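How a chain folds remains the central question behind the approach discussed here. No coordinates are needed to read the tokens, only the vocabulary itself. For completeness, the protein is quoted in full, as a sequence line and a line of structure tokens:
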Amino acid sequence: MIAQEMMVLWNRPAAPGYFRMGLACATGFDTAKPGQFIMVRTDADATPLLRRPFSLLGLIREADRVTGIEILYKVVGKGTEHLSRRREGDRLSVIGPLGNAFRVPERCRQLILVAGGVGVPPIRFLAQSLLARKGNPNRCMVFVGGRTKDDLVCITEFDLPGFFLDVSTDDGSRGNRGMVTRRLEKALDDGPVDLICACGPAGMLKAVSAIAAARGIACQVSIEAMMACGIGACLGCAVSVNDDDAPYRHVCVDGPVFDAHRLRW
């Protein structure tokens, strides 16, 4: 973890209400992994006071060196509205990389990735990382869902060798009509899977966890939580886990990626 000022490289609309931002970093992100996040001060005047957490969408590389990071965000309040007005050359105070990451064992041959709405960033980063890794899974299916077609962001970037993309929208405006979890269940009926990795709304993650548990499949989920500090000092992002001796964990330091079967939904 390192605190630094980063220069905005770009801040482009990605879909209605969504933006992709590139940030130049001096150091600290060479070993950043899918699932980790950063805490950003969205306004130079510290209004709002608290930083905002954003998952890493990916790393920017020049040759073999990491020179920047990319995030995806949706404008939902004052902090992200401030962020949407940032321009190339502006500077932002950033802390990161923070938290833990997805863990895909080398022996994993059949993998499913699930993303819903703004849960796309760590899943996209994970897919890109697996493609570059030796011994990547033989089969990887990616399920992306949104309420409407406007909530489907970065889906073309899952068009990767050996990856199979399945898209769903609640209203049927693009891809299959219905919840992404219905498509997941159908795929699981067609063959065995070693691991499911997911990120998205809490309701979706709960459903994915239940589906995996019912079939005895390992499952990791990246969960969202309101964070004030991102480093475990405020204790405001507690989640309940199945551990009588220590029934709570904190998303910022113990997560955001958890074994789904350890969470008390």
Remarks:
- Residues 202-215 form the longest helix (14 residues).
- The chain has three domains: 2-98, 110-223, 225-265.
- The longest strand covers residues 2-15.
